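DM from R.C. (forwarded with permission)

"hey, sorry to bug you on a friday — could you get me a structure for this? deadline for the figure draft is monday and I only need the backbone to look sensible"
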Amino acid sequence: MPKLPILEPIPIPERALDQALDIQHDTDPAEDHGPARRIPHLGHAVLFFALIVTAVLLFGAFIGSAAHISTEQAEKAHPGLSLLALTLGYITALLAAAWLFPRLWQRSFLQGIQWNALAARRRWFWIMPAAVALSFAAQYSDLHFFPTPPDEALAHLMRTRHGIWFVTLFGILLAPLVEEIAFRGFLLPAFATAYDWLALDRTPAGLHRWQGSSAHTPSALLFAAIFSSIPFALIHADQLSHAWGAVSILYAVSLALSFVRIRTHSVACSVLFHSTYNLTIFAVIFLQTGGYHHLERL
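My reply, with the result:
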């Protein structure tokens, strides 16, 4: 009996694994799902941010009422409660979004925001060292060129053992996840879509291209990276005591995060970069304070 030939796996080009997939369209016309739907668009981004703000405010009001905190001065005296409200609000908003948006998009939440965990597993070897290097550069700049006065509430919280561990876990795990989904998963593609729509050639050929692919143009992605980084930096202004030199450094960090997101077509990659960046900051503090045992050194 003749031996059957052994079928070798078809090699996939290295570049093909990094490129964004247009899951709405296929080379087979029978698999075409009609005009391309660009998601998330600006309406989706506004809705996601509204979920976050609403959840944080509701938890803040509930916790403040339970702790009998009625003034801004009293709130600053209990920064741990504010961080708790932010944590619960972030988690609740993320769970609500994971339930709501698949029903609007007709696809999974992770697919809609282009999570792409495979890219993170394949690219960690340059993402993490780059994040560490940028974190050290930013800390050096803060120390030597743009000294930042400490935020009193945050500094007070970080001078307690429980408080600094709470801040550390929040800064390494939850904050990078939610912020990257918000700014690189929602806002960046939303701005890019808006730019491409405004710049669209209003001809049959232009409209045909718009309907045939959901990919963004390079100029749209550049525009989106520049302008989505502005609110990212501004939301940290209070934390940085409105020291605009430090805020400008954070703006540059946001541009780096946007580059990672665009280059890898993966929000998971920008989360990994953001988390590693923050981890480096807390690792320096950990070593500086002898394993968080001498917090008076902060």
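R.C.: lifesaver. The two ends are 78 Å apart (CA to CA).
me: no worries. Residues 161-198 form the longest helix (38 residues).
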